[in-house]
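comment on this one:
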Amino acid sequence: MEKNLQGHRAGSPVRSGIPEHGRIPKYYAVKARIAELLDELGEGGTLPTERDLAERYEVSRETVRQALRELLLEGRLRRSGRGTVVAGPKLEQPLSLASYTEGVRRQGRRPGRQLIGLERFPCPPDLAPGIGAEPGESVWHLERVLLADDERVGLESTYVRVARAPRLDTDFQPDSSFYGYLRDSLGISFGEADEKLETVLATPREALLIGTPPALPMLLIHRCSRDQEGRPLERVRSLYRGDRFSFTTRLRAE
């Protein structure tokens, strides 16, 4: 017997995630109705208050609150001042050697970075292999908040040998692309990288810097890059807001 999937959106759960027995939690039914309302309001539209939504759908405010929590975590909504508005589409960042700056610009958004700190310290043994350093050798640690149209969307830590970028503290503009600096100022081009992607919760410090609740799921990418000669170049720890980012890649048969 064929299933009727009329009206089904590609990429969404089949039958909107409703189990075959047809019984769904009350909050989930309210969430589906609020999602329809978001489509009507459009990006930037202001959502009615919890009280108004509870009266409209004839449910308790706690039921509405649970539905809104999920929509916030999914990135469908965002807080704005004391209200809640419809969020725009998530930023799609390619899993490639393109920089964050290039990825954001391709989507018509304005990339930026806010410097948290640039420090120089002796390389610990566990960090040394990833950047081609000797234990105790001087390395840079560059930490910056990632911005998209002035919205804080992530946090990035970059480690590189001082010998590879000796004037990083004087010649580099902290709000610009680090990859662009290596390429244009030092003649260093990237050849390949190993990446690991996982979901985590931000630490209290990270949540404060990014401006998110500690319970918001984050996407964490560890990257170890090598130059075109195959030499280790940098190690990066990038933390992205799970409600504002998705990642894309293209797969080919080997």
